[in-house]
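We read letters as residues; the fold follows as tokens. A sample entry reads:
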Amino acid sequence: MKKIVNYVVPAVSLVAIVFSVAAFNKTCAATQSTNQVATVSTVSSVAAGQPVDLTYAAEKALPTVVYIKNTQNSKTQTVEYSDPFADFFDPFGGFFGRGNGGSQKRQVQTPKRVAAGSGVIISTDGYIVTNNHVVDGADELTVTLNDNSEYSARIIGADKTTDLALIKIDGKNLPAITVANSDNVKVGEWVLAIGNPLGLNNTVTAGIVSAKARTMGEQGTVSSMIQTDAAINQGNSGGALVNTNGHLIGINAMIYSQTGSNIGYGFAIPTTIMNKVVEDIKQYGTVQRAMIGIRGMDVNSYVDLQKEQGKEVDLGTMEGIYIDEVVEDGAADDAGMKKGDVITHINGQKVAKFGELTGIIAQKRPGDKITINYLRDKKKSSVTLTLKNEQGNTKVVKNADIDVLGADFRPISKKQMEQMEISYGLEVIKVNGGKMKDAGIQKGFIIQRVNDKQMKEVEDLEKVVKEASTSKEPVLIIKGIFPTGKRGYYVVPLQND
């Protein structure tokens, strides 16, 4: 079970944000007529002050929520460990090249691990949305529907930043949920959380929307969450948060707890963000993330911080986003925005806190234009800027495949390990062209580290290529050893200028 520890009150209370996926163990733990995501803009049809009947919503949504089992198979890994007595028994080993500083190698067998979570069917042909942390690292994904039918699933795409993933099963005429516009959700309205918590499949819990646009999780991860007091526990991850019409308004993701169990604080990723992530994965293979190019905080947080330092400050408002830093050559910098400006509106929509800003930007793509209203020295101003990607331009960011390297690889043999006195590496067995040839890498070179990550299997290289291709700096720093024993390194850019 993943945890993000947040010391809310130092030395007083330890509080954790807990991803609501069932922990790893050694043992297994409204149909749409279209294949597209059905989106509606209606809000829950409950008259104020009237009793709430949630049976309709449960009946409508339950068939669309699935149980997901993530299996990570047992693997053999070569690890290094230190032997403090090695040099005692062979004091001249290191001097004559026989020793390696007390470092020894051995193979270990990792245990088979199984985790469980939930997912939501969003199209009749088998597309399912869940959390990234539900499917991360899976060798096998098994999906069980509400009627107990079972399918193997494949990952179409996943995004760590928003903690969302899109998977697919081969099915037809499946029950697909109706997707509502989460922007229309109101604080205080009734909602249901549906999933498979603690091994109790097809569980429905009820509560209200406690807050919107909550900024949660580690820096650089998902924010602008819907907060609910509907009970969410381990195994609820990836399940549905629905309104009284049984329409999807969010994907359950985490809880805020002192115990690891629900105490009334659950969080879901809004469908406005989910829809954009799904569209990007289908169209581009990766999420097109727009950047405004600022760092900042809520105005009230900034004012409080200044007061703690004995300073009085008047920004002309107590709502909005205080810009603490403008990223050089970013969208805001190009538009002339400065440190100390206070953003109050984006595209005419009021922005009172940082979660609202990130929620709006999360729905945009590089190249989109937005109009920002802001205060500078308490004077109103506005500017229209063009959002950029993490690489500082407006191009489509492509999730590069290992094929872009234009070479073939294989893990080194035991004989090579002994001859080269190394414990891991990937041998370049053929160079056809592409980025490897451009960089001058030739057949026989043994890759040991790429971007400071060990290369033991071809899958390790595939993963680092995909990560680097969508990063701020799409470059591979490759370190390794030549057949002669000489060490070397190469810089391999993944994108053309």
Summary: The first strand starts at residue 3 and ends at 9. DSSP finds ten helices and 30 strands in the chain.
